[in-house]
Amino acid sequence: MTVILLLFCAYLIGSVPTAVWVSKGVFGMDIREFGSGNAGATNTFRVLGPKAGTFVMVVDMLKGVLAVRLAYLVSYYHNPEHLTQLVNLQIGLGLAAVLGHIFPIWASFRGGKGIATLFGLVLAIQPLVALCVVGVFLMILFLTRYVSLSSIIASIAFPILILYIFNEPEIFYRIFAIAVALLVVLTHQKNITRLLKGNESKVPLFKNRKDKN
């Protein structure tokens, strides 16, 4: 019962619609009616610019971190002997937050793709791996200014890091890393199509958001 309650709390945390509240509260618009229609950091970058996009991305990441930290509210998982169960619960809580981000109860179940919240999950469990992933993300973003492409490549780098660089022993975590890469690629099919056609929008990293170049 405790685990179920924690999973529900993690879902509620993930349901906080950062992009929707920022777009409505600050810009007087619903981000879901513009750009790709997603209530996530990528669309916020594209429509509202880097400042709003960065804020949304950071808060969405913190949702994943906070959800994972809920595991420490159960004293059973404080014992080092229960490390495997702890990691499994943390992944479950993080995924519940991602589910909340994608289907937010506070925003009519219309959310984003959950990439930033997924990153927050990894950040809370393995900070070093997360830093490597964000390094890949930022490098691709700096070179291309495509948030979607950066997310895809960073997600593919994640299982490579887990399986071959850090050699993670927990089988469930290894499966999770592979599943994340597949999920990100699958949820970015439209972005991939636009990238191949040259129609994907670039984020204005160093320019005003009204500058379309």
UniProtKB/TrEMBL annotation:
It comes from the Bacteria. Its main location: membrane. InterPro entries: G3P_acylTferase_PlsY (IPR003811). Belongs to the PlsY family. Probably interacts with PlsX. It comes from Chitinophaga solisilvae. Pfam families: G3P_acyltransf. Keywords: Acyltransferase, Cell membrane, Lipid biosynthesis, Lipid metabolism, Membrane, Phospholipid biosynthesis, Phospholipid metabolism, Transferase, Transmembrane, Transmembrane helix. It is a multi-pass membrane protein. It is found in: Cell membrane. One of its GO terms (cellular component) is plasma membrane. It is an enzyme of class 2 (transferase). Pathway: Lipid metabolism; phospholipid metabolism. Catalyzes the transfer of an acyl group from acyl-phosphate (acyl-PO(4)) to glycerol-3-phosphate (G3P) to form lysophosphatidic acid (LPA). This enzyme utilizes acyl-phosphate as fatty acyl donor, but not acyl-CoA or acyl-ACP. Its EC number is 2.3.1.275. It catalyses: an acyl phosphate + sn-glycerol 3-phosphate = a 1-acyl-sn-glycero-3-phosphate + phosphate. This is Glycerol-3-phosphate acyltransferase. One of its GO terms (biological process) is phospholipid biosynthetic process.
